[in-house]
Design brief:
alpha+beta, 3-stranded antiparallel beta sheet, 3 helices, 22% strand
């Protein structure tokens, strides 16, 4: 991607979305239980992060316990007053899980899933085209 300092944050995000669509990215990970392919967080980061860096965007995650909302904020480093935020509500799992080890494992899994959802929403990536 070529850098263009005149692009707004939304134009930059749209540029990344178009490039991802042109590349026709497909999930490489496979879930034996549900018998479908899916994007791992690492796959998504490998697809998105280089493109984000090319257009000078900084991505910041935030998971608040106060209102149980996960945020992904894209900040335009060429104009730090320009940003775009995606948010997703989530459930508190601390009431469900009693064992500390299980809680930590489930919490890490929840954060990973939220990061994936936030990235996929911001950059309009479809994971399973069979279920559209």
């Amino acid at each position: 991607m070529t850098e263009n300092k005149d692009l707004s944050i939304l134009n930059k995000i749209q540029k990344i979305r178009k490039e991802i669509r042109r590349e026709k990215v497909e999930p490489k990970s496979y879930n034996d239980y549900s018998k479908n392919n899916y994007f791992s967080l690492q796959e998504l980061e490998n697809i998105i992060y280089p493109k984000v860096e090319d257009v000078n965007i900084y991505l910041d995650y935030n998971f608040t316990n106060v209102n149980k909302t996960a945020y992904l904020i894209a900040i335009d480093l060429d104009n730090t007053k320009s940003s775009c935020k995606i948010e997703i509500p989530y459930n508190d799992i601390s009431n469900i899980v009693t064992e500390k080890k299980t809680y930590i494992t489930k919490y890490i899994g929840q954060i990973t899933s939220l990061k994936k959802l936030l990235l996929m929403n911001m950059f309009l990536i479809i994971e399973n085209k069979n279920n559209e």
